[in-house]
UniProtKB/TrEMBL annotation:
<protein>
    <submittedName>
        <fullName>Helix-turn-helix transcriptional regulator</fullName>
    </submittedName>
</protein>
<dbReference type="InterPro" id="IPR036388">
    <property type="entry name" value="WH-like_DNA-bd_sf"/>
</dbReference>
<keyword id="KW-0238">DNA-binding</keyword>
<keyword id="KW-0805">Transcription regulation</keyword>
<dbReference type="InterPro" id="IPR036390">
    <property type="entry name" value="WH_DNA-bd_sf"/>
</dbReference>
<dbReference type="InterPro" id="IPR002577">
    <property type="entry name" value="HTH_HxlR"/>
</dbReference>
<keyword id="KW-0804">Transcription</keyword>
<dbReference type="Pfam" id="PF01638">
    <property type="entry name" value="HxlR"/>
</dbReference>
<feature type="domain" description="HTH hxlR-type">
    <location>
        <begin position="16"/>
        <end position="121"/>
    </location>
</feature>
Length: 124
């Protein structure tokens, strides 16, 4: 089976430009060192508090995590839930249904990453 990218419509300069723009938009929203890691942990763990989330992502600082969560919340990937009726106040983060639409992308990236790692090891 041949591995080719199939895009909607004929391969025109306009279609190529639109596809590049769409990929650029996606990378802008979920790109960087931490965003996908945060999304993966949230999808895996469900409701999770800030410190637990930080413990599950080695190397991320509290400041960076806080900023990334704000960005992800603005883009609809994360919901921040404040339980003000409890003492102390508890804040939890959960992945949204929209965030879960990334699951096939994450699985594909994971599979590709494993294949790539094997290829690199074989080449050396």
């Amino acid at each position: 089976m041949e591995n080719t990218l199939e895009f909607e419509g004929p391969a025109t300069a306009q279609a190529c430009s639109e596809n590049l723009s769409a990929v650029e938009d996606a990378i802008y929203v979920i790109g960087g060192k931490w965003k996908l890691k945060i999304i993966i942990v949230l999808q895996d763990k469900g409701n999770i508090r800030f410190n637990d989330l930080q413990r599950n992502i080695p190397g991320i600082s509290a400041r960076v995590l806080s900023n990334e969560l704000k960005d992800l919340e603005l883009n609809g990937f994360v919901k921040r839930v404040v339980h003000a009726d409890q003492t102390p106040v508890i804040v939890e983060y959960i992945s949204t249904d929209y965030s879960r639409t990334l699951k096939p992308v994450i699985i594909a990236l994971s599979q590709w990453g494993k294949t790539h790692k094997r290829k690199i090891k074989e080449d050396f």
